[in-house]
Amino acid sequence: MAKIIGCIGTSHVPTIGVAYDKGKQEDPAWKPLFDGYKPVAKWLEDNKADVLVFIYNDHATTFFFDMYPTFTLGVGERFPIADEGAGLRNLPHIRGNVDLQAHIAESLVNDEFDLTITQNKPIDHGCASPLPLMWPHEPDWPGVVVPIAVNVLQYPLPTPRRCYKLGKALRRAIESYPEDLRVVVVGTGGLSHQIHGERTGFNNEEWDQEFLALLQHNPEKLTELTHADYVRLGGAESVEQIMWLAMRGAMPEKIRKIHQNYYLATTTAMTVVVYEGEEETTSSAVGSNQSVMA
């Protein structure tokens, strides 16, 4: 049977992809961020991950505000990476597994999640920005991706609790798949940031650290917050954090943090965290780095 071996929370800032494509991994302004993903890549390699279930949001690339689904699951053998204005990226199309994707879709619908299903649609920076930092891709990706897009742009949004329940249903779907696959669930977005309006450039490091602590030890408390609470505490775009709750819902009650990197150098508190279930832990801690630049 398929098994969830851990989960990853990661920012999906589009400039990460731009900096990566321009070879800025050793640039002093970017090095702390890129270095923070090296332990993640090693953890995925050491644990032989076959599948990344990516919970992300589409940034008006495949969908637009006249038709923006609440939950969307992508099905396809290959997904092109969207050109969002900077040109096509020098990355292979993202690999998929149609049988697994179809199984998850059917299981989630039977678990009363009314999904939109797309086929072979392009994937934007919500997934494609952090992906090459975690997985090698020459000549091709080492495994497959199950893309699940969540509406965090067009109100009304799914509630934090609904996203948490999505994660629980996703775990049931994965664990009922008969093939022996090692699966990692990735929640993307955030942490604190606002990129428009009077609070442009707003960050709240104290809230970011509280969120990460609650995510690990008391996620139920995070499900009780409203969208307005997330916006007030972390900025308008930090409502993306509800996608981390979907990732957390797919994990057991008790989890162990394997790695954390927090880097505040732009308008977004760029963060990556790796967790394993305490009863499922297979690797030793690979470190934690807290890096804040004024």
UniProtKB/TrEMBL annotation:
**Ranges where the Extradiol ring-cleavage dioxygenase class III enzyme subunit B domain occurs:** 7-274
**Gene3D superfamilies cross-referenced by the UniProt entry:** LigB-like (3.40.830.10)
* Short name of any one Pfam family annotated for the protein: LigB
Q: Which InterPro entries match?
A: Gallate_Doxase_N, Xdiol_dOase_suB
Identify this protein by name.
Protocatechuate 3,4-dioxygenase
